[in-house]
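This week, study the protein below.
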Amino acid sequence: MNTNSHTVNPLFSTPDTITRKMGKFTLRYRPYTLTLKHVFTIAAGSRSTTPVVLVALEYDGVAGYGEASMPPYLGESHESVVAFLNRVDLTTFSDPFLTADILTYIDSLAMKNTAAKASIDIALHDLLGKLMGQPLHRIWGYNPKATPDTTLTIGIDTPEIVRQKVREADSFNILKVKLGLDTDKLMIETIREVTDKPLCVDANQGWKKREEALEMAHWLAERGVIFLEQPMPREQVDDNAWLTAHSPIPTVGDEAVQRLSDVRSAHGVYSGINIKLMKCTGLREAHKMAELARALDMKVMLGCMTETSCAISAAAQLSPVVDWADLDGALLISNDVYQGMTVERGKVVLPDRPGIGIAFC
C-alpha cells in the first residue's frame, strides 16, 4: 500500500484524467465506475454500478482528494460532473485557507450539481488538513472516541439473498433495511429469522398513504425498528408531519432534506435529518446543517451514497457529533481505490492521518 497521500498518486495519471493548472492550484479529475458486490434494490429501482468522478486538488506540492458520486436520483453523470469541473477556475485564489470564498464561488457556478461541488469541497478540506498536519475531526475539536455505530444496508431482495446479506453483516450492531414495496413485511420477517439486532428502515418515499404508513410504523416498532427514514414522498409535507406526530418511532427526512435551507423546513415534519455530502455540496455545508439541526432539537443522521473510502472518510469526520451513522457505502463495493475509515465491532473508527485520513490501496 502506498501511504503517501500528500503527493499526487498514479491513479491520476491515466489517459482519461483531465489536468488543469490554475495559478497556485492544479486540479485533476477522472471518471470511475464503482461495482457493487450485490445488486442494490430500493423502492425506486435497482443497479449494480454507480458512476463517480475522482478529484485531486494540489497546492504547493500537497494534494487533497475528493469525489463526486452520482446515484440516479441526483440527476448527475460522468458527463455533467466533468462539464462542471471544466468550468472551475481557481486562478484568482492564492490561499487555500479562504474556504468560504472558494466554496461560495464553487457553489455559484451552477444550480444543483451538488455532487460535483462536493468533490471540490472534500478535496479542499483534505488539502487543508494535510497542510496543517492534522485530521479534520481534530481541527474541529471532535472526540474520535465518540463515534457512533454505523449501519450496514440490506437492499430489497429475495429471502435467500436477504438472509445471506444479514449473515455477512454479523459484525455490525445495527442494520438498515430498504423498504417501500409490497414485500416490506416479508423483508422484516426474513431478517428476524436470522437476527434480533436493532433495525432502522428506509422506505425511500415508497409509501403513499399516511394511515398505512402509521400502521407500518407501529408494526415495525414492535419488531425492533428504532427509526424510519423518508417514509412518504417529500412533496407530501402534511402527511409526513402527521406521521411524525403519531409515530411510535422517530422519522428522518432524507430526500426532503438536501441542503442547509431545507433544515428549518424539515423542523416539525420529521424528527431528524439525514445529511449526505453529495446532496449538500460537501463538508462545509454538512457541518452547518448538523449545527442547525441540533439548535432545533432535531436528531442528526450522517448518510452516504455508494462511494469510495474517500467520500466516506470525509463524512466520517463529522460522525462524533451525530446520533446515527450510515457510512457503509465503501463496504458495498468491490473496487475501492482508497483506505480510510474502518468499522470495528460495528463502530466507526476514524483514521489518524491528516485531512480526511485516506491512503491509497
Remarks:
- The chain is about 35% helix and 25% strand.
- The first strand starts at residue 18 and ends at 22.
- Residues 1-5 have pLDDT under 50 and may be disordered.
- The CA atoms of residues 113 and 255 lie 15 Å apart.
